[in-house]
Task: structure prediction
Amino acid sequence: MPDTNKPLPVSSSQPPRFAPEQEHLFREVLKLLNTHDVPYAVSGAFALHEHTGIWRDTKDLDIFLAADQVSRTIEALNEVGFKTEICDPVWLCKARQGNYFVDLISGMSNAVIRVDQSWIDRASESEAFGIPVKVLAPEELIASKLFVAFRERFDGSDIAHVIYAAGNRMDWNRLLTIVGDHWGVLLWSLVLFHYVYPGSGAVPKWIWTDLLAKLQAELENPNSEAPFRGSLIDERMFAIDAFEWNLENLIEKYRAQAQPKIEEPRLTKVEEPAA
Result:
């Protein structure tokens, strides 16, 4: 159950205050990734600040990397004493030190959107805690947040802020390519953006024309065979649809097809001492 007594994050231009142990963990992980030439990009609160100027208190550091890079990254972290765990082989691992942790993220939990090398190639050069890093581009940052629409957590405000700050310089074709057949979720986010910022021209008119034309086409020619997609948004809130109303649980299909999955890292062989 979520901690209902914990205060919700508040957007601000004031940087958060990190505990010394937390900042040490973040620095050491970033330095290790750089030393081992791991292709990665920083996301989360740090990327949000990079593109909008907004700071939000954060308990972790989000590192995005392709799934085929995660095992060797975990091996490198283990070698220097970090505690690591594969929380979900589809998308999430953690590196811990004391009460603090870093998230290693290779996609979305529903497996609809996956991180690949192009995400890293398109990331911009920056720094965090004085260490050179790459930070997710706004297009990938938005894509990473589109399906964060749970009852307990909703990233719609982050998406709106990124569009407001960076929409005029974004590669919208890139974002359309990432979302693919799931353009409806992007349109949903854009409608929210327009409601929040009705006077903004950050979303090009051709995007509205394209997405609204797709919506109109579907409304005029509904596909009775189209699958139920609620579980891709929130599999707990839409559980009744799948398990009691017998609609297809589409998230299981996407997660089963997710490739490559994160593999267990190789264990370092410890040599027995000579007799």
